[in-house]
Amino acid sequence: MEHFFTCPYCWEQISMILDPSEEDSEYIEDCEVCCRPIELFFKFSCERLVSFEVRVMEGI
Q1: Integer CA distances (angstroms), 9 to 18, 33, 36, 37, in order
Q2: C-alpha to C-alpha distance for 31 and 5, rounded to whole angstroms
Q3: Which of 33, 45, 47, 56 could make a disulfide contact with 12, Cβ separation 3.0–4.6 Å?
Q4: What is the tally of structural domains in the chain?
């Protein structure tokens, strides 16, 4: 499923494809605009996105 969010560094809107088969996911993705690393946390339940959080990488 495609999901849109705002980069916490450059404030550009970013889209990414999330896999609903992974119930809980946590990983780092570089912004496609400013190339800075973003921590992503999301959770699915019954293939529905129930939470999505974006965090600035500490120490970067």
Answers
A1: 21, 10, 7, 9
A2: 11
A3: 33
A4: 1
CA distances from 52 to 20, 39, 59 (A): 12, 11, 22
Cα–Cα distance, 43 to 46 (Å, whole number): 10
Q: Are 4 and 14 in contact (CB under 8 A)?
A: yes
Q: pLDDT for 22-43, tens place per residue?
A: 889 998 999 999 999 999 999 9
Indicate the burial class of 50 (C-beta count within 10 angstroms; 0-12, 13-18, 19 or more). Answer: exposed
Q: pTM higher than 0.85, yes or no?
A: no
Domain that holds residue 6: 2-56
Instruction: Report helix, strand or coil for 40.
Output: strand
How does strand 24-30 pair with strand 13-17? unpaired
